[in-house]
């Protein structure tokens, strides 16, 4: 940077100038040291997990196993994406597992037993999710009921409702030939499409980055520099193209995973680039300050809970499609914990005000890799529960330590 | 919608019989207060006199139990902070009310972001720098979270935020409490500039020097009630007497003791 004129935001002599590639790297190390870990725990976690499991069972890294892993990851991923929204506010929803089970039961009963058209059954299940979320939001706003308690009671109530509507048979098989089940089990993208989609993010990064740079330069603000942008885009494209190539050695990239990633991108846009997203961060950071700035805190609360429960319902519908059945077991067991653990491992704080949509995507890959690896080792579910529980505990400890470090480094 | 600014000397804000009860405690009782355009009114009083409560009532944070508020000649109900902000009542709260996890730009524009569906970060950042320059703020980077700023820097951010929406009246609750010498002078200059633009200013301060330096009128509250209106040339003795409610008080006794020692 050889600006003859000082940029508007570079006037202060106390500010270190992190310019170019070395500056970006230095900034990254500084952030990690001060407790702003970002994606680091996920990358470390994935490397450790794949090394361990592939030594124990080489099938783990086989392309088709990874394709299956992505199918499974997507279903819980939707739930986790909703969890990111409520965690962002410093709230929690413990009933997402039950909600997903209820949605899958509704799908089975309405579609198979009552013969409703599929879209209507899906809409009804999603609508039920929205209503449940609305109820949590109202309980929090009107009665100040902590979401921990309201959703814990929701966990039981929704599970009861699920068992009730399934009735004595307990499980309903969904037709294998239907588009929904094929979407949940079989449909993969054609090769050309998956490669195009793998290249697109890098291109978008460069195009949007160049536009932002031009605007910032026009406004006399500093820019991070072209080299950083190009290196980021190149790394991203290389990683994505390699992943797609490897998955295409097997069955290919599941459409369901594509839908999940699309929703993650949409949520990321909403959280980072809209007024609603800014309000989410503000309410999570300091809800009284947000209220005094004129933000409608109640509406933000309701929106987060509605989104969370609706996404949980979507996850339930798709996991029913994945298993081709609606059963009493749907949404029970470790679904709740996996969804919450994924969000936390991905870097969304339990304490509110910090997080990103990508944490659902990255976290669920870690969680599903563990679950998949343990299944391949033929371990009983008792051991699987204990190990997943341990991983969640570690994730929360890392979150707490990182938070303490951030506080002492003045990063909140 | 922000109403038109009344002519200089016309009342912007008129409070009649405003009371606020917190359970059995009456924090404000029957408060009358007028703020005119182009006037700086200082609100002084001891701890617990009801100054901050009054500011919070006007900011829409607390709802008054009784009384009427007229804003630019119209009776208004300040039922939420956003109503107050939309009318053009801006407040710098004593606890600043900033979100520590957000950066300076996000805090300045909180609740009033440019382009709600596609946040215009560049325009917001430029506006932030201009505003902070006007206040002679010493903030190294507007892209750092507020948690990394010092107390004085945070106070400057809070003041800058109150100016952002082009308000009709600004209320500052202890605006200089955490500020250094230069920043305090800057804030006092700023208050004068705001007054010269014909806006109304309410300032709460324990610092009598600051109060005298800028205030056109000094309104004393005591135990939640009006306890006299003074001008900047009122003697310190009279002011302290009105604040504490007695000519014989710890401040006067201390001064008398010092006098004796000197004699």
Architecture overview:
- Chain A: The chain crosses the membrane at residues 37-60, 66-89, 120-140, 152-172, 192-214, 226-247, 253-271, 300-323, 360-377.
- Chain A: Its main location: membrane.
- Chain A is mainly α and 412 residues long.
- Chain A has two domains: 39-187 and 255-411, ABC transporter involved in vitamin B12 uptake, BtuC (Orthogonal Bundle), CATH 1.10.3470; 188-253.
- In chain A, 73% of the residues lie in helices and 1% in strands.
- Chain A is built from 16 helices and two strands.
- Chain A has helices spanning 20-33, 40-56, 63-88, 96-113, 118-143, 147-166, 179-185, 191-218, 226-249, 255-273, 275-285, 287-292, 297-323, 335-345, 358-376, 381-408, and strands at 171-173, 325-327.
- Chain A has a two-stranded antiparallel ribbon with strand order 1-2.
- By secondary structure, chain B is α/β, with parallel strands linked by helices.
- Chain B has two domains: 10-88 and 166-260, P-loop containing nucleotide triphosphate hydrolases (Rossmann fold); 104-164, no CATH class.
- Chain B has nine helices and ten strands.
- Chain B has helices spanning 51-58, 81-87, 104-108, 121-134, 151-164, 181-196, 208-214, 236-244, 250-262, and strands at residues 11-22, 25-36, 39-44, 66-71, 74-76, 89-92, 169-173, 200-204, 217-222, 225-230.
- In chain B, strand 9 and strand 10 (225-230) form a beta hairpin.
- The model of chain B has no long low-confidence stretch (mean pLDDT 88).
- The chains are: A mainly alpha (412), B alpha/beta (263).
The assigned structural class of chain A equals mainly alpha
- The CATH architecture assignment of the largest domain in chain A turns out to be Orthogonal Bundle
Q: Number of helical runs of chain B?
A: 9
Q: What is the assigned CATH homologous superfamily of the largest domain in chain B?
A: P-loop containing nucleotide triphosphate hydrolases
Fraction in helix of chain B: 25-40%
DSSP strand count of chain B: 10
Q: What is the third-level CATH name, the topology of the largest domain in chain A?
A: ABC transporter involved in vitamin B12 uptake, BtuC
């Amino acid at each position: 940077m050889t600006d003859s004129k000082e940029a508007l935001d570079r006037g202060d002599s106390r500010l270190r100038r992190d310019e170019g590639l070395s500056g970006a790297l230095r900034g990254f190390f500084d952030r990690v040291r001060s407790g702003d870990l970002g994606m680091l725990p996920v990358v470390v976690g994935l490397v450790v997990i794949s090394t361990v499991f592939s030594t124990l069972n080489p099938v783990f890294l086989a392309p088709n196993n990874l394709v299956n892993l992505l199918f499974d990851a997507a279903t819980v991923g939707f739930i986790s994406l909703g969890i990111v929204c409520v965690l962002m506010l410093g709230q929690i929803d413990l009933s997402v597992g039950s909600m997903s089970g209820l949605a899958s039961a509704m799908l089975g009963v309405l579609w198979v037993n009552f013969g409703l058209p599929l879209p209507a059954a899906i809409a009804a299940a999603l609508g039920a999710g929205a209503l449940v979320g609305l109820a949590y939001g109202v309980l929090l706003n009107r009665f100040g009921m902590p979401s921990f308690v309201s959703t814990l009671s929701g966990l039981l109530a929704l599970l009861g409702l699920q068992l009730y509507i399934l009735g004595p048979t307990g499980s309903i098989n969904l037709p294998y030939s239907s588009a929904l089940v094929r979407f949940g089990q079989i449909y993969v993208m054609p090769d050309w499409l998956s490669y195009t989609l793998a290249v697109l993010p890098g291109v978008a990064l460069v195009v949007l980055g160049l536009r932002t740079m031009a605007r910032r330069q026009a406004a006399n603000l500093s820019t991070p520099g072209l080299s950083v942008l190009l290196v980021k885009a190149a790394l991203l494209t290389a990683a994505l193209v390699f992943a797609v190539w490897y998955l295409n050695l097997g069955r290919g990239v599941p459409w369901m995973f594509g839908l999940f990633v699309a929703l993650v991108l949409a949520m990321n846009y909403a959280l980072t680039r809209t007024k609603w997203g800014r309000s989410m961060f503000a309410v999570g950071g300091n809800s009284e300050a947000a209220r005094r700035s004129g933000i409608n805190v109640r509406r933000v609360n309701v929106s987060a809970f509605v989104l969370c429960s609706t996404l949980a319902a979507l996850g339930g519908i798709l996991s029913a499609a994945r298993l081709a059945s609606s059963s009493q077991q749907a949404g029970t067991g470790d679904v709740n914990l996996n969804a919450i653990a994924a969000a936390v491992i991905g870097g969304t704080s339990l304490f509110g005000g910090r997080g990103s949509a990508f944490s659902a995507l990255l976290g669920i890959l870690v969680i599903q890799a563990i679950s998949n690896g343990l299944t391949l080792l033929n371990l009983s579910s008792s051991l699987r529960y204990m190990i997943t529980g341990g991983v969640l505990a570690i994730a929360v400890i890392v979150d707490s330590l990182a938070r303490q470090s951030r506080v002492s480094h003045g990063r909140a | 919608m922000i109403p038109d600014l009344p002519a200089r000397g016309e009342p912007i804000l008129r409070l009649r019989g405003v009371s606020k009860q917190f359970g059995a405690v009456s924090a404000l009782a029957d408060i009358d207060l007028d703020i005119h355009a182009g006037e700086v009114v200082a609100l002084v009083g001891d701890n617990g006199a009801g100054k901050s409560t009054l500011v919070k009532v006007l900011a829409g944070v607390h709802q008054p139990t009784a009384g009427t508020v007229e804003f630019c000649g119209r009776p208004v109900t300040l039922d939420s902070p956003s109503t107050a902000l939309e009318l053009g009542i801006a407040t710098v709260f004593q606890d600043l009310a900033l979100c520590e996890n957000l950066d300076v730009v996000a805090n300045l524009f909180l609740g009033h972001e440019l382009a709600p569906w596609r946040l215009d970060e560049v325009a917001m950042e430029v506006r932030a720098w201009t505003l902070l320059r006007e206040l002679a703020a010493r903030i190294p980077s507007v892209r750092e979270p507020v948690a990394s700023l010092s107390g004085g820097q945070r106070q400057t951010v809070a003041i800058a935020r109150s100016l952002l929406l082009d308000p009709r009246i600004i209320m500052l609750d202890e605006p200089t409490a955490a500020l250094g010498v230069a920043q305090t002078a800057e804030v006092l200059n700023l208050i004068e500039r705001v007054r010269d633009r014909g806006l109304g200013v309410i300032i709460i301060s324990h610092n009598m020097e600051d109060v005298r330096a800028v205030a056109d009128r000094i309104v004393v509250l005591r135990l939640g009630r009006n306890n006299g209106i003074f001008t900047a040339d009122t003697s310190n003795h009279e002011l302290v007497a009105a604040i504490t409610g007695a000519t014989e008080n710890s401040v006067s006794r201390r001064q008398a003791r010092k006098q004796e020692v000197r004699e």
